[in-house]
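Support request, please re-run this one:
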Amino acid sequence: MAEVVPSASMEPNYSAGSFCIGLRLGDKSTLDRGTPIFFRHEDVIMFKRVIGLPGETVSLKDGHVYVNDELLDETEYLADDVMTYPRTDESVFTVPEGTYFVMGDNRQHSTDSRVFGFVKKEAMCLL
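Re-run finished. Output below.
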């Protein structure tokens, strides 16, 4: 399936209006941390990156992301000066089974799991 990147939330890695090819996930598909995905949220197609896997705890502290209390290495897709802060009063998220915690690369301008919560696997397409 071809999708258009719907917003600037993944810049500079993916520009709004760019086309990407997505694949539907099968029941046995696994998602790795850092994988960019399309998903449907409240009848809107969104494009974000997988950060937290089922059963993990994602914490936002001092501008950085920690998974299970270990600093997440995001140098593959984020510039060194990008800081990640909570978008609500929540700063610690425990990811339920069957769901994922996702964030955009453009952290200051991304509405993501920090705001709307977890994404079910059934709603996702793999890039």
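The chain has a mean pLDDT of 86. The longest strand covers residues 44-52.
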